[in-house]
Design a protein that fits this description.
The protein has about 400 residues and is an alpha+beta fold. Helix content is about 30%, strand content about 20%. The longest helix has 21 residues.
C-alpha cells in the first residue's frame, strides 16, 4: 500500500485522547485503531506482535543477517490532540501547491495562507495534504505511524536490504502526557529507539523542556456585596494579583529557542475559591528549579498579605532527555548519517515541548525524536507535505541499514 493511502486510511480513525477519563487508553477509538494496526502488522508478516489491555502495540521485524547487531526501535503514538476534534477528518490533497492561499472551507471562510503561515513557502511545487477546516488532520502522529509501517513493509519486500532486529511500538495518550507511563521498556527490548513525532523535514531533537504543572488555589470569603467592607475576601481579585506578579515577558507568546516560560492554561474561580493552573517549562534544569521556587515564593507573598489564603501544588511531568542521550551520541550520528544519505539536511533543534522519548529515555530507553513531516499540529491549519512523509520513511530504512553495517 502506498504511504499516502496508508496515512489517509489512518486519519479516519477518531483517536482524540482525553485526560479526564483516568483510563488507558483514555478513549476507545485508540484501541480500535490499535486493533486495526495489529491486524495490518500480522498481514505484513511481522513477529512477536502483542497488543495489551492498555493499548500498547508492539511487533518485531526479525534480523536478516547472521551476525549480531543492536536492536533498534521506532515508536509513534496513536492519539491525536484534545485541542481540536479528530472526528470525521476529511483530508484533501493539493497536488502541486502554487504558493498562494489555500481555501480550506469556503463556507466558513477558513483559509490557510502564507501571510499567516510563512512556512508554506518552503513547500511550493509539492503535494500537500490539508484539512477541510473543520478538524485537525492527525499527522501528529499518524504520519509517524504510516512512516514506520511503510518502512518495515519496504524492508520485508526488499530482503536484499540487510538489517538487524527492529522493534516497533505504537502507544496511546502521548498528547495528554501519559504515553510512556505504561510502556514496558524491558518487554520492548531495544537497545535504543526513535520516536517519529517531530515536525518539519530534517528536524532531529534530543533535548526538550523540563516540565511541571502547578495548581495555585486561593481561598476567599463571600459576603453580600452591599455589606462587604472589611469582610469580603475576593479570591478572583487575589488570583489576578498573583498573575501580574509573574514576569510579563516569560510567556509562550514572547519566547523561543531555549527560553523557558510560565504558561497560565486555565482559571476557574468564584469569590470563594479560584484555581490557577500553570505549566512551567525550561530547557535548563537549574532555571527550571528556580521557576518552581519563584511560584512558591509568590504564594508566600500572597499569604503575607492575606493569611492562609493561597496554597500551591507542583508536580514534575518530564525532564530534558539530553542528559540521557549525551552518553550515547552515536545514536544521533546514525540519524544524521541516514538523513544525509537520503538527501535530507539534518536540523538539530530543541523541542519546545515534550515527547514520549523524553520519558522513555529516563526509563532506560534512549529515544531521540525524528521529523514526521507535518506542520501546524493540533488545529484546522495542520498540513502535511507528502515528500516529507516519504523522506521520513526513507530515513527509517536507512537507519536500519546503517545499524546493520559490520564494524
Amino acid at each position: 500500500m502506498p504511504i499516502v493511502d496508508r496515512f489517509l486510511q489512518y486519519v479516519k480513525f477518531d483517536t482524540q485522547s482525553d485526560e479526564e477519563t483516568n483510563m488507558t487508553p483514555s478513549t476507545p477509538g485508540q484501541m480500535i485503531f490499535a486493533q486495526h494496526l495489529e491486524k495490518e502488522l500480522r498481514e505484513l508478516g511481522l513477529s512477536e506482535i502483542s497488543l495489551d489491555d492498555n493499548g500498547y502495540l508492539m511487533a518485531t521485524l526479525p534480523s536478516n543477517v547472521d551476525y549480531p547487531t543492536p536492536t533498534v526501535g521506532f515508536i509513534a503514538h496513536l492519539d491525536t490532540s484534545p485541542d481540536m476534534t479528530g472526528r470525521h477528518v476529511n483530508p484533501r490533497i493539493i497536488e502541486k501547491y502554487d504558493g498562494g492561499d489555500i481555501v480550506l472551507n469556503a463556507e466558513k471562510g477558513i483559509v490557510l495562507s502564507p501571510s499567516e503561515f510563512p512556512e508554506l513557502s518552503h513547500y511550493v511545487g509539492q503535494a500537500l495534504i490539508v484539512t477541510d477546516g473543520n478538524t485537525l488532520l492527525g499527522a501528529d502522529d499518524k504520519a509517524g505511524i504510516a512512516e514506520i509501517v511503510s518502512a518495515v513493509s519496504h524492508l520485508i519486500h526488499h530482503p536484499e536490504i540487510k538489517h538487524g532486529k527492529i522493534r516497533i511500538a505504537f502507544n496511546p495518550d502521548e498528547e495528554i502526557g501519559q504515553g510512556a507511563h505504561k510502556f514496558d521498556v524491558e518487554r520492548f527490548g531495544a537497545d535504543w529507539a526513535y520516536t517519529m513525532d517531530g515536525g518539519e523535514i530534517g528536524e532531529l531533537e534530543y533535548e526538550n523542556f523540563n516540565a511541571a504543572v502547578a495548581k495555585v488555589r486561593f481561598r476567599g470569603r463571600n459576603v453580600h456585596p452591599g455589606y462587604a467592607k472589611h469582610k469580603m475576601i475576593n479570591s478572583i481579585r487575589i488570583a489576578n494579583q498573583f498573575i501580574i506578579m509573574l514576569p510579563r515577558w516569560e510567556t509562550p507568546e514572547h519566547t523561543e529557542g531555549y527560553e523557558g516560560f510560565y504558561h497560565l492554561i486555565s482559571i476557574e474561580g468564584t469569590v470563594e475559591e479560584t484555581v490557577l493552573t500553570y505549566i512551567i517549562r525550561d530547557h535548563d534544569r537549574d532555571r527550571f528549579e528556580r521557576r518552581k521556587k519563584e511560584l512558591e515564593h509568590l504564594t508566600r507573598k500572597i499569604n503575607n498579605e492575606f493569611p492562609d489564603c493561597a496554597s500551591i501544588e507542583i508536580k514534575d511531568q518530564y525532564f530534558n532527555m539530553r542528559e540521557k542521550i549525551e552518553p550515547v551520541m552515536h545514536i544521533i550520528d546514525v540519524v544524521e548519517k541516514a538523513m544525509t544519505q537520503v538527501g535530507v539536511t539534518p536540523v538539530v533543534v530543541p523541542i519546545r515541548g515534550g515527547t514520549d522519548g523524553a520519558q522513555l529515555s529516563f526509563k532506560g530507553l534512549p529515544c531521540p525524536n525524528i521529523f514526521a513531516g507535518g506542520l501546524n499540529f493540533h488545529g484546522r491549519y495542520e498540513f502535511l507535505p507528502i515528500p516529507s512523509m516519504e523522506k521520513a520513511r526513507d530515513v527509517i530504512v536507512e537507519i536500519a541499514k546503517i545499524v546493520a553495517e559490520k564494524k
